[in-house]
Amino acid sequence: MVKSLIQVYRWSIRIATLLYCLYMIFFAEMYHFMALNVLLAYTPLEISFHLKKVQKRMFYLLGMFWLLFYPNAPYLFTDFFHLEQLTIYQGMNQIFGQALSDWVSFSLLTVGICVYGFLGMATVFTVLNESIQRNIFIKKWQEFIFILLINVLSSLAIFVGRFNRLHSVYVFTKPIQTVKIIFFDWSLNKMLFILLLTIVQIMFLAAIFGLKGLKLIED
Asked: Is 83 within 8 Å of 109 (Cβ atoms)?
C-alpha cells in the first residue's frame, strides 16, 4: 500500500512537471525560460527517487549527478526578479493592476519557483539519510559538514549561473572553461554573495526540515 502511494506521488510529480514545462514552452507569454529551469530543478528530485534501489558504487555515481544538478533547485528562487516584467505593480503610490494575464503569469512563475525549488532542496535530506543508512556518514559532525558544503557549492553554482550565465550542462559541453570560471575566478562580491546565499539556503532547509510532509519526500 505504501509503495503504491509512493509510486502515485512520483508519477504525479512527473506528469505535473511535464505539463508545466509544455505549457510554459507553448503558451506562456513571457516566461518560456521557466520550462528549462524547472526541468533542471526537477532533475535532482528524479535522481533521489532511485537512490534506495542501487548498489553502493552506483549510489556514488548518482550522488555525483545529483550534486551537479542540485543547485538548479535553489537557483529558481533568483527567478523572482522576473516579476518586474509584469504590469501588476508600478510603484509605491499606485494600486495593483487587475490584468488577468499578468496574474496568470505571476501564478505560473511563483508555483514553478516555490514547488520545484523546495522539492528539489528537500532532496538534501534524502541523500543525507540514505548516506547514513549506508554508513557513509557515521558521525553527526559529518552530517553538518555535508549540509554546509552542499550549500556553499550550491551558492557558488548560483553565482556563476546568474552572473556568468553557466548552466549544469556546460560541465559536459565546456568542461575546462566551466571549471576555470567556477573555481579560479574570485572577487570580494563573489565571496559575499556565496556567504549570503549559503545563509539563505540553510534557512530554507531548516524550514523544509520542519515540515510534517518531509517523510513523504524522503520516501
From this structure: yes
* pLDDT by position in tens, the chain (length 219): 667 888 888 999 999 999 999 999 998 878 999 999 999 999 999 999 999 889 989 999 999 999 999 999 999 999 998 888 887 766 655 666 677 888 888 999 999 999 999 999 999 999 999 999 999 998 999 999 999 999 999 999 999 888 887 776 777 787 888 888 888 888 999 999 999 999 999 999 999 888 755 454 454
Quick count: other Cβ atoms within 10 Å of Cβ 74? Answer: 26
DSSP structure class, residue 187 = -
pTM of the model: 0.86
The torsion region of residue 91 among left (phi > 0), alpha (psi -120 to 50) and beta comes to left
Q: How far apart are CA 207 and CA 122, in angstroms?
A: 10
Q: Helix (H) and strand (E) counts for the chain?
A: 10, 0
